[in-house]
Amino acid sequence: MRRILVTGGTVFVSRYVSEYFADKGDAVYVLNRNHRPQPRGCTLIEADRHQLGDRLRQYVFDAVLDVTAYTGEDVSDLLDALGDAGERFGEYILISSSAVYPETAPQPFTENTRTGVNQYWGAYGTNKIEAETELLRRVPGAYILRPPYLYGPMDNVYREAFVFECADQNRRFYLPGKGGMKLQFFHVRDLCRCIEAILDWHPAEHIYNVGNEECITVREWVEQCYRAAGHTADCVEVYQDINQREYFSFSDYEYHLDVSRQKELIADTVPLDEGLRESYLWYRGHRDEVRRKGYIEYIDVHF
Question: 0.70 cut: is pTM over it?
């Protein structure tokens, strides 16, 4: 049984990660401000990560899974409170993002691609770079995972949930152009499997792109979301000069991660159709937990 600290623990990725390892029999501690329901089977450390003082000095953790660090300050404040690596904690795994790669770099992005400003991700990407930099400065042996779009049960982001809502209402779906833009996804359970492999094996590489090996077009993704909800998509192609984020859940930005190094950690990934069925089953019972946006209202007025 490992003693694991997870930052967050109440929303999507951090909640799923917490319950995944608790179900494995690990002693999972979640660090959050207790503003939301807590994950099943975990011990709460109620605190703000920026005002920890000596709250963590009574603990020794085998691993720190930092799911909610978005800036260098997020990392430095937590490390200050944890104490020395090797004495107060073992492995430190940061969930970063593919947003650290500039859109101008050659694709597919590899772990050796130089990080930099990405105009589509803006401050989110540059802040993640700062978080990575601060972590490796303080803990050179830490691990960093860089996923593309994460999905799966507990996903409260209005992406597949938007398509599920359209499907449940038997709505036509408005695609940007022919829907040929490609997207890369990664099931949150596969993210947990990668974390678990690192904790078990302590691999020599310390930065991993993680994601499904294959990308999927927007049209294919929408059609799979409709099928997961038990419907058939009737798509309308939109060619008007409109920012697609007004009516669609992704920006007009296509990128591809090279995830060949990931095979050192896990041999396969959850098939997208299977993962979307799981996502839809969760969505059916948790619609009120999704952070909804006004895409449908925009569509009803403008199309």
Answer: yes
